[in-house]
Amino acid sequence: MLFNSISFLVFFPIVFILYWFVTNKSLKTQNWLLLFASYYFYSCWDWRFLFLLAFSTGLDYLTGLKIYRSDSQLGKKIWLVISIGINLGFLGFFKYYNFFAASFVDFIGVFGLKASYTTLNIILPVGISFYTFHGLSYVLDIYNKKIEPTTNWVEYSLFVSFFPLLVAGPIERATHLLPQVEKARTFRYQQAVDGLKQFLWGLIKKIVIADNCAEYANAIFNNTEQYSGLVLVWGAILFAFQIYGDFSGYTDMALGTARLFGFELLKNFNYPYFSRNIAEFWKRWHISLSSWFRDYLYIPLGGSRGSLWMTIRNTFIIFLVSGFWHGANWTFIVWGGLNALFIMPSVIWKKKNRETQVVAENSLLPSLKETGQLLLTFGLATFAWIFFRAESLGHAGEYISRMFLFGSDPNPFHYPELRSSRICAMLLVPFLCVEWLGRKNNYAIETLGLEWPRIIRWSIYGLLVYCIGMYMNTGGAEFIYFQF
Amino acid sequence: MKQFLKASAGFGVFALILYTCLLVLNKRFLPQRLMPNTFKYDTASDFTATRLHEADSTENVDLLILGSSHAYRGYDTEFLAKQTGLKTFNLGTSAQTLKQTEILLEHYISRLNPKYVVLDIYPALLDNDGIESMCQLLSVEVLTKNMVYEALCTFDIRVYNTLLYTLVNKLFHFSSDFKDKSIPGEKYVKGGYVRSYIAEYEDAPFPASSLKISEEQEISFTRIISMLKERNIKYIMLQAPLPKERYSSYLNNDELDNTLKGFGNYYNFNKEKSLPRSFFMDQSHINAKGVYLYNKYVLEKLRTIYQSTNLSRN
User: Fold this and answer.
1) Membrane spanning segments where (chain B) (predicted)?
2) Contact residues, B window 126-155, toward A, CB-based 8 Å cutoff
3) Is the CB of A193 less than 8 angstroms away from the CB of B7?
4) Confidence label for B178 from pLDDT (cuts 50, 70 and 90)
5) CA distance A12 to A14
6) Which DSSP category does A48 fall into?
C-alpha cells in the first residue's frame, strides 16, 4: 500500500476514526489498533513476510531483555552477537546472497579458477533494511546502557512496525519513539493540521516532482547510447530531483501521517540541495541513516578522535557501508566511495559543521560565493547520483563518458520523446522557490501564510491541490527506497 | 477534534470549488501544454461529437459498426448501405476499447435497435486502459449513469478532470469548447464514417510486441456478446487492414486469432491479404482507396450472418 494510492485513502480514515473515536479511552487498545493496522499495511505488499517481521521483532525484544538481565559482560556480549548475527544474516540472505555469490565467482575467475553458483530468485522483503536497523539500534542502545528494555511486547512491536515508517523510514531510535508509544497521546489541533500540510507537501514532491522527473530520467538513463552531452546532463539533473522528491516526499508523508496519530518522527531531510559542501549535504540527506551510521559505526570505530588517517579511514568505511546498505551492486559502493572522496576536503581541513546554519539565513538570496558553493555541491551530488541510478559500473562509465561528447543535438527539448520534459523544468522552478523560501522550516510550507487570513491560506493549499490534479504524473512510479 | 473535522470538511468543499473554477478558467484560457492532465478534444478530426449527435437522432438501423478509429475510418456507411440495402450506422470512436464499446452499446442499443453488428477489433487496444476514449466520450457529453460510474472507477485524474469540466459545462449551460475539427482531405459521411483521401504513410520502426486481452477488456467482451445474443442480434468480428510492418511486429497474431474465435465469427483481413502503403492514410489507418477494397472483403464476410441476395457484388 502506497501513501499515494486509493487503498491508503480508504485505509487511513478508517484507522484514524477508530484510533481517535473508538479506542481513544485506552492506550493499550490504541497501540493494539496501530499494531494491527501496521501489520495489515505491510501485508498488502506480501503477507508471507509478516512472519519475518514478527520474527525479527521477537528476536530483538527477547535479546534486548536477555542483554539487560545478563549478569556478566560476556553474557551480554553473546546475546548482542546473536541478535546482530541473526539480523544481519537475514539481511545478508535476502539482500546480498546473489551479489556475494556472483562477486566471488568473478573474483576467483581472475585467478583462472572456475566455479558455478546457484542464483536464487529471492524476493527482497520491503523495508527489511529499515526495520532491521530499528531493531539493531534498540539492542545496541540496551547493550550500551543508554536505555532499559521495554517489557511490553505490543509497545515494542509498534515501535518497530509503526506503519508510517515501516517500509522506508525514517529509521527511528528507541530513545525517541518508544517513549511516545508508551505515553498516552492526546489530539492536538495544530499538530494534526501540520500533519495534513506536511502530507500534502510530500504528495506534491512525490507525484508531481519525482514522478514527472522519473519519466524522463528513465527515458534518458535507459537509452544512454542514444544521447550525449547536455541531454545526459539533463538526465542526471532530473534523476537528482526524482530521488529527492521521491524519498523526501515519502518521508514528509510518513511524518505527516504519524502527526495525525499524535507521533513526532525524526526529521530525515533538511533541504540537502541547499548545502554549501558535501559534508553539509550529508547532514541534511537521509539524516536518520547518517546518524545511525555515525552513532553505531563511526564513533565505535574511533570517529574523528584519532589521527587524520584514522578519521579518513573511518569516513571511507561509513560511506562504503552506507552505499552497500542501499543495495547489492558495485554501483552503490562506488557511489558511497565517491561521496567519501568529495567529503575529504571538509575532513582534512576540519571545517566547522554548519548543519544548523541555514544558507543565506538573513537574506532573500545567497551571495555570489554561496551560489557557487551551492552549485558545486549540487553538481558533485548529481555526479555521484549517476552511479546510484546506473544499472552497472559499465553503464555509469558509458553515461559519464558520453556526457563529454557533443556530437549530436545538445538541446534535450529537440528530441521528440524528451520534448515534454519541459514540464519538469517548468515545475522545478516554482518548487525550488517554495523550498528556498521555506528552508528554515521543518518542511517548506510549514509557516506559509500562517499570519494571513484563513481564506488566503486555504487558497494557497487549494492551489497546491490543483497543482496535483493538473501536473501529477499518471504513470505511477514506485518509491525508489522501497527496493532498499 | 470536532474543530479539526469541521475545518477539514470546510477545506474539502472550498478546495473543490476552487479546483473547479481554476479548471474551467484555465481550460478556456491556457494552452493545452500547460495542463497535461486535461483532455484536449480538438487534436483529432474524428467527428465524434457529430457522430454521436447523429446517433441521438437515428433510430432502427440494420447494421451497426462498433470499434475504434479503425471502425469509423474503415467502414464506409454509404458504400455498405448501397451494396446491401441495409441502413448502416458507424458508432466507432477514437481509441474505443471494449469497455467503451460496452457503454455505448448499452446506451444506444434500444434506440438504434440493430439487426446485425460488426465489431471491429484493433488488437493493440485489447490491453489498453481506455483512458483516452473515456475522456473523449465524456468530453462530448456522453454522461449516462453507466458512463459516469465507469469514469469514476478509472481512478485516473485525466478522466476526473474531464468529467468535472463536462459536468460544469452542462450544469451552467456553458458552450462546450469540444468542437469537431475538419482537416483538408477528410470528410464526414452521413452514418458516422470519416472518408480520408490522405496518403501520408511514413516509414517508422515498429518494435516487436505481444498482444493480449486484459482481464477487464475480456469481461466487457463477454458482456457485449451476451448483450447481442440476448437481443438476438447477429454479429461478426473483423480485424481491419494494418500496414504489413505493423501487423508483423505483433509476435502472437495466431494466438490472438484463436482466442478471438472463441467469442464468435472472427475474420482477420491481415492474415489473408495485405494492402500496399498507398492505401493507408498513416501508419495505422486505411484511406478511401483502402476502404473501397476492404469493404468488399467486409461484404463477403457479412454473408456469413446476412443470408440475402441483396448483398450484391460490385
Assistant:
1) 6-25
2) 131, 155
3) yes
4) low
5) 5
6) G
Label residue B313 by pLDDT band (50, 70, 90): very low
Instruction: Please name the amino acid found at residue A397.
Output: G
Q: How far apart are CA B217 and CA B128, in angstroms?
A: 8
| pLDDT of the residue at B314 | 39
Q: How far is the C-alpha of A388 from the C-alpha of A396, rounded, in Å?
A: 9
Among candidates A33, A64, A55, A87, which has minimal Cα distance to A174? A64
B41, amino acid identity: Y
Q: Are strands B186-189 and B116-120 parallel, antiparallel or unpaired?
A: unpaired
Among residues A134, A286, A326, A395, which one is catalytic? Answer: A326
Give per-residue pLDDT as tens, B28-85: 888 877 888 887 665 456 888 889 989 999 999 999 999 999 999 999 999 999 998 9
Q: What pLDDT, in 10s, does the model give residues A98-127?
A: 777 777 777 777 777 766 666 556 666 777
Burial of A70 (0-12, 13-18, 19+ CB in 10 A): middle
Give chain A's count of helices (H) and strands (E): 20, 0
Task: Render pLDDT for B253-275 as a digit per residue (tens, 0 to 9).
Answer: 999 999 999 999 999 999 999 89
Mean pLDDT estimate for chain A: 89
The answer to whether residue A134 is catalytic is no
Distance of CA B204 to the CA centre of its chain: 24
DSSP label of A95:
I
Q: Is B165 exposed, middle or buried (0-12, 13-18, 19+ CB in 10 A)?
A: buried
Residues B193, B78 contacting (CB under 8 angstroms): yes
What length does chain A have? 484
B312 confidence band (pLDDT: 50, 70, 90):
very low
Pairing status of strand B234-239 against strand B88-90: unpaired
Distance CA B173, CA B150 (A): 24
Question: Would you say B165 and B52 are in contact if contact means Cβ atoms under 8 Å apart?
Answer: no
Interface contact flag, B3 A189, Cβ < 8 Å:
yes
Which residues of chain B make contact with A187, given a CB cutoff of 8 A?
Answer: 1, 4
Per the omega criterion (within 30 degrees of 0), is the bond before B276 cis?
A: no
CA distance B196 to A257: 56
The three cell numbers of residue A27 are: 492506550
* Minimal Cβ distance to A469: which of B34, B131, B157: B157
- pLDDT band at residue A317 using 50, 70 and 90 as cut-offs: very high
Where in chain B does DSSP place strands (E)?
63-66, 88-90, 116-120, 186-189, 193-196, 234-239, 266-268
| Rounded CA separation B23/B168 (Å) | 10
Chain A with chain B: Cβ pairs closer than 8 A = 57
- What is the predicted pLDDT for the residue at A123? 66
H/E stretch holding B216: helix B215-230
Residue B34: list chain A partners with CB under 8 A: 426
What is the domain partition of chain A in residue ranges? 6-186, 190-276+359-483
Measured CA to CA, the distance from residue A211 to residue A286 in angstroms comes to 19
Q: Which of residues 73-102 of B touch A (CB under 8 A)?
A: none
Looking only at Cα atoms, what is the longest distance across chain B? 78
- List, as one string, the DSSP characters of A452-484: S-HHHHHHHHHHHHHHHHHH--TT-PPPGGGG-
Per-residue model confidence as pLDDT tens digits over A124-169 = 677 788 889 889 999 999 999 999 999 999 999 999 999 999 887 7
DSSP A192-221: HHHHHHHHHHHHIIIIIIIHHHHHHHHHHH
Q: Is the pLDDT of residue B9 over 80?
A: yes
Rounded to an integer, what distance in angstroms lies between the CA atom of residue A262 and that of residue A182?
12
∠ CA A462-A465-A471, nearest 5°, is 135
- Is residue B183 within 8 angstroms of chain A, CB to CB? no
Find, among A286, A268, A265, A284, the residue nearest to A276 by Cα: A284
